[in-house]
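Case 456 in the screening queue. Each case pairs one protein sequence with one candidate compound; here the compound is 2-acetamido-2-deoxy-beta-D-glucopyranose. For every case the pipeline is the same: read the inputs, emit a complex structure as tokens, and attach any notable structural observations.

Predict complex for case 456.
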Amino acid sequence: MKLPRSLSLLVISIAASVLSFCRQWTVISHQSDVVETSSSSFRGRPSHSSKNLTTADERPRVTGFLPQMNLTSNTSPWAYAYLMAGVDTEHPSYLGIFYNILVSSHILRDSNSTADIVVMVQMSANSTDHRLTPREEDILTRAKIRMYYLDIPPKQSFYTMQMEKFRILDMTEYERVYYLDGDVMPFCSMDYMFELSKTAAATTHYNETNTTPTPVLRENIILAWRIEPAHGGAFILAPKKGDYELLQEIIHRQEQQILFRHKFDTTKGWGHVITPPDAWHSTGGREGPNATKWSWHGNFADQGLLYYWTKYFKKEVSIIIGGNVENWSGNKSQVNVGLLKSFGCISSEFTKPFKYASSGFSKMAPYRDFKHFTGRSKPWLVSSGVNMTNTYKFQDIQTAQEYWFYLFRKIQQRYQLQEHSAKLHRIVPTTGFGGYPTIRMVRATARARKFRSQLE
Ligand SMILES: *[C@@H]1O[C@H](CO)[C@@H](O)[C@H](O)[C@H]1NC(C)=O
Ligand SMILES: *[C@@H]1O[C@H](CO)[C@@H](O)[C@H](O)[C@H]1NC(C)=O
Ligand SMILES: *[C@@H]1O[C@H](CO)[C@@H](O)[C@H](O)[C@H]1NC(C)=O
Ligand SMILES: *[C@@H]1O[C@H](CO)[C@@H](O)[C@H](O)[C@H]1NC(C)=O
Ligand SMILES: *[C@@H]1O[C@H](CO)[C@@H](O)[C@H](O)[C@H]1NC(C)=O
Ligand SMILES: *[C@@H]1O[C@H](CO)[C@@H](O)[C@H](O)[C@H]1NC(C)=O
Ligand SMILES: *[C@@H]1O[C@H](CO)[C@@H](O)[C@H](O)[C@H]1NC(C)=O
Ligand SMILES: *[C@@H]1O[C@H](CO)[C@@H](O)[C@H](O)[C@H]1NC(C)=O
Ligand SMILES: *[C@@H]1O[C@H](CO)[C@@H](O)[C@H](O)[C@H]1NC(C)=O
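Case 456 output:
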């Protein structure tokens, strides 16, 4: 089956890094002496040892935030959240994302972001370790990144992985959480987006000369993309008590329908018939007669649910469509052309690497302030065109990938990540996830849930 380009955009974000790991060139040294616990001795375990349950990780499983020394609980009302799912420490195909999180955090901190940074970690059901390696946990703590461990669902798949993004709704200690796919790199502090949607009466704009008492953006913010109205790779939600549970009910209802009907209903979508003049819009604007159908990519997974949740369930959302912003409240909307024109965070010093950033709408905030390394363009893959033997100087950087690599070299020094290219080439990438969510995966999840609830 040939996938349309933007489906890859959505789905490959996590998967391609998993599938293409054999091209990677470095790995965290597991022989580190930074933190020694029982599990470090498992590094050299023979291949059959995964069957020997007595060698399993002795560290306790954790769900929710991992208590981290020297990292007090949140200090900010805002957080950026990344997701790293299907982690198997014996098949470290997640390291590209791990490195990207370190690079991105470096950029955010360096540009004075005050928001917390969270990584949601979901281990693979096949992993004998219950957590990231002690060394990896230590690096994240030193980088002041909070770890939030997720339960392993009964039937883990690319679909369940996509739906875990919504776990940010459960982080009610934050007012806003900016979810970013594991292959998204901010170019600068994107805190202005939080600032623009601040609910407090006395909001000051990011632009200090222009202050106004009303927020510019609503509490939830979604971005239209080339052929879909809600991009699953970057969005902001306002966590509220009880909302995560409500969302789970919506998900289960949909899974049951798909189990029963074998397909996604593009008229009712997630529970709302779109009636004209209401319609969805993409930045490409080619939706035509389908603009009232739930017919875009990822419709039955994250990109459909995100649109339903923010626009028709919470009824509180700013939908950014290229240069336009739709502010929705209740069932009223206002369309604003160029609302975000004077915002953004790229300074002139930074223009160079971003000149080569992807498409037309990337010229506007918030699109221009991050890069989504989709498909094989991920800078940790040889296919990205980065010269991995080069030590790039800032003035020589031509692309966002090279900028990533330039910063990665700093990160590598800071945390003493060592080169193990020869070793890595022998690692066979394994993933049972597939590269995109399918209806079959949804049905498998529905059946697994049913089975588990019958046991209880
Ligand atoms: C399983 O692990 C234990 C403890 O490490 C070891 O003593 C035992 O020989 C192992 N058994 C097998 C079948 O590998
Ligand atoms: C915690 O911070 C203190 C003071 O900054 C430092 O001395 C100590 O080594 C830190 N502990 C860890 C585990 O990083
Ligand atoms: C971050 O803060 C430092 C110290 O106040 C300042 O020198 C620097 O210019 C700031 N960077 C940005 C991108 O605002
Ligand atoms: C929505 O857009 C209008 C501009 O037309 C603006 O005045 C208002 O503050 C925006 N924000 C919200 C939260 O409605
Ligand atoms: C509308 O959706 C249908 C079914 O998803 C698809 O076959 C058709 O090509 C779409 N039409 C347009 C104009 O996108
Ligand atoms: C939305 O519109 C419908 C019909 O126009 C109306 O009955 C309903 O009360 C409205 N809901 C809100 C929250 O404004
Ligand atoms: C700040 O906002 C004012 C009023 O909207 C505008 O004239 C000015 O150019 C903006 N400044 C920057 C640095 O964007
Ligand atoms: C990569 O960088 C190295 C070191 O600067 C250089 O010698 C080599 O020619 C470069 N390779 C390519 C393909 O540009
Ligand atoms: C675990 O391994 C089995 C067998 O190799 C594979 O079929 C399955 O998809 C894997 N599961 C995950 C979550 O990676």
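Case 456 observations:
- The chain has one domain: 5-34+59-455.
- The domain at 5-34+59-455 is CATH 3.90.550.10 (Spore Coat Polysaccharide Biosynthesis Protein SpsA; Chain A).
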